[in-house]
Amino acid sequence: MLKNEYTEFQKRVINLYIEHPEVKKLWEIFDRKRLYRRLGAEQDSEEGQLHLFVKGNSRVGKSQMMKKYKKLNKGYEHIKEDGTEIDIVPVAYMNCPAPFTKKGLYNQIIKSLGATKMSGDVETIKDRAYFLLKEQKCEMLIIDELDYLLSSTYVSRKESMELIKGITNETDVCLILVGTHETDKLRKLDQQYKGRFPPRTIPVFQTCDQSFIDLLISIEEQLAIPDYSLELGNADSAFPELLHQLSGGLLGWLTPILREAFAIVGVFEPDFKDFSILNNIDGNVLIQARENVLGEITEEDFDDVTTNKI
Description:
The protein is α/β, with parallel strands linked by helices. Helix content is about 45%, strand content about 10%.
């Protein structure tokens, strides 16, 4: 077997993306919302058809889902009649600024569109952000890490949500808000927020059920190890139950634990050229990988993160 095939396997491990079963459903919803927008859905009529409030546990894979969706809907260059070149951004992704401020919010929008952040007063920066959203034909803006609003000391929670609501009032973009279950407090501050941002929960794999086993099977398919199977999704082996226990059913932990396990057995060593080393991946290696990834996390903290608090 040629050495580059081992290198290609290393790349697959590094770029491993574990797709939550909810992902495709969510992406289909996103696609429909963008379609409704293109067909002229009015902001003031059935607002919930344009916007969404996505919530879920930390490490459940929310951010990766959003970044992946943006990547799948790449921007492109458009030349206007006057010869001006414009970068079209169908889907923009941003994190809430930390700490959350008015200028920070609008500058993050500007940054998400590939432009340079501005200095100046709030209104000037806001006008620039809104202009770019229209000029670059942005259909959907994903605002992640909404939890930063909860700890904001510069802007109250209510005022923060009013700023976000203002984006929907003054632009025609679909707005996707993303945060943990705690951020649902923000949505419930006002009846308008409840109607404008209908909630959607990304569930945790609470048990090692068939859906989790199917996920492990899909991981092996993505890794595509030549003439070899790790049996990760073999219900008769100890792997499914152990991986669920070690990761708490959270994809944000499962992915790095698996990647670290491959590293421990030597997949990323310069002389890696034998897939038989994968036979060394066992319970002890997975436990060590978990310790390397999560450090000395206490059981209390582990339970706090993995408990599905709605």
